[in-house]
Amino acid sequence: MATIERRPAGWRARIRRKGYPAQSRTFDSRAEAERWARAMEARMDSGQWVDLSEAQNTTLYQALDRYRREVTPTKKGSKQERLRIDAWQRSDLAQRPLASIRGMDIAEWRDARLDEGRAPSTIRNALTVISHLYTIARTEWGMEGLHNPVQDVRRPKARQGRDRRLEPGEEERLRKAATAEWNAVLTMALETGMRRGELLALRWDHVDLKRRVAHLPDTKNSTARDVPLSTAAVDALRSLPRDIRGRVFRWTPNSLSSGWRKLCAKAGVQGLTFHDLRHEATSRMVERGRFNLMEVAAITGHKTLVMLKRYTQLRAEDLARKMD
């Protein structure tokens, strides 16, 4: 039988039963303490009781530390995930025990981020980290009875994918404003549809100009692939000097993004991201009609036709001409 006693911080319920570790918890009211005690004893009686003491004694901050050490290094996007973990550890929820965080708490966190103007994709990615942490805690860290509060809340709807394409004259202006190296990377991006990270990781020992193939041993989806090179792409590569470090392009991701913004400003091109070139390249491959969709996906590295569709923006006026 549970005992309920008055304490300075509220009402404490204590349960001592043979075969189970002692349980206690403090509540604001006696009624809450009694409800909790009845629920715990009912679980013990039915054999459904699970020890949550570790989850009650482990804060979200501590769990995130362990997750960062044991789980994050195994992931492709470990650098970005560490930044998300840092942000969570600065949140008000970080000092709360894992077992005390409810769906309502996660929903309040979500709404606060939306009010701050954070992108839905940013919030969704942050929630994915916490959801996976709870899964790992339950399945691998011995907290079997821990409930995942992220499962109880709606995730912000992802914004509609970008449909930005190069407008007439924009490519010419970019090339006119670009250096030889920028022209080469622009050509490679438009001819192959390679991602920024794939272009920057490209090494000369993975490029076969005679066979016209660039080998990508490490891609975003962790699947190596060979990218065929058009004549224009081969010419662009041949125009580049050989870096002593073996890299085809000298930029880091940040320096390329910074340089791209400067190039667009110089060329008078607005609202075009470097990643939009991948959309443009994919759309051009489909529009030319030289490849079927499976061949386009093999070139660009899209895992599914659904993903390929997201990266393909066909102009209605171009489709209209094909109808005649």
Describe the overall structure.
It is a single chain. The chain has 324 residues and is mainly alpha-helical. The protein has three domains: 3-49, no CATH class; 57-152, DNA polymerase, domain 1, CATH 1.10.150.130; 170-322, Intergrase catalytic core (hpI Integrase, Chain A). Helices cover 50% and strands 8% of the residues. It is built from 15 helices and six strands. Strands 1-2-3 form a three-stranded antiparallel beta sheet, with helices on one face. Strands 4-5-6 form a three-stranded antiparallel beta sheet. Strand 4 (207-208) and strand 5 (213-216) form a beta hairpin. Helix 8 (180-192) crosses helix 12 (276-288). The mean pLDDT is 86.
Concise summary:
The protein has 324 residues and is mainly α. The chain has helices at residues 30-46, 53-57, 60-70, 78-89, 103-115, 120-139, 170-177, 180-192, 196-201, 231-238, 253-267, 276-288, 293-300, 305-310, 316-322, and strands at residues 3-7, 10-15, 23-27, 207-208, 213-216, 225-228.
Number of strands: 6
Parts with pLDDT < 50 across at least 5 consecutive residues:
none
Terminal Cα span: 84 Å
Supply the helix-strand structural class. Answer: mainly alpha
Q: Main β-sheet: number of strands, strand sense, barrel status? A: 3 strands, antiparallel
Q: How many structural units, i.e. domains? A: 3
CATH homologous superfamily title of the largest domain: Intergrase catalytic core
> Might you state the CATH topology name of the largest domain?
hpI Integrase, Chain A
CATH class of the largest domain: Mainly Alpha
